[in-house]
Amino acid sequence: MHKLLIILCFSLIIFHGEIKGDEIVPAEPEKEKSELAKLMHEIDVDYKVVEEMSGWYTYKKKHWEIIREAGESIVKVTKKIRSRFGKPDDWTYEELMEKMQIAAEEMVKVAKDNRREGALEDAQWQVRMLRRTCAKCHKHLDIHIYPNLYKKKEKEMPPLP
Ligand code: HEC
Asked: Which of 42, 55, 96, 97 is the 20 to 30 Å CA partner of 90?
């Protein structure tokens, strides 16, 4: 009787182990986006709006409104990022965050004073200033978002045939 119990016990353990081994491992849940990534995404949406328009030859009143709103929104989000996700030990990061805010603030100024001669060119210049900060910071942190935000490094280019 004793022997039987022991055998039973062992087989139970083995049996249990087998089931466990066969268990379907659940797919890793999609990583929750970080708070910073979410804020970046907000900036990205506004940035794409102004970039899309930056090739145009003329803006109507409603377009200036869109530019102003996008600029204001980028300023707001950038301020939030700077207060919550500052990197005091990374001077380049801090400087580029500030530059992004300044570029967006300038864009708002231009959009508010859009009847001025050269306002269109100035608005487009600010879009370029913005893009430069995105590209520089992502490159600095080795973040690869989309390649058109910055030039690819030489060594990443496919080899010549
Ligand atoms: C000073 C640094 C800095 C600047 C400037 C910057 N970014 Fe980022 N960006 C980051 C960091 C850091 C992350 C990674 C966030 C994470 O994954 O936690 C990021 C991530 C992103 C992402 C990915 C977000 C996601 O959904 O995972 C996008 C898109 C993005 N940035 C767009 C932009 C655009 C557009 C600009 C310019 C208008 C810009 N960024 C300027 C630092 C910067």
From this structure: 42
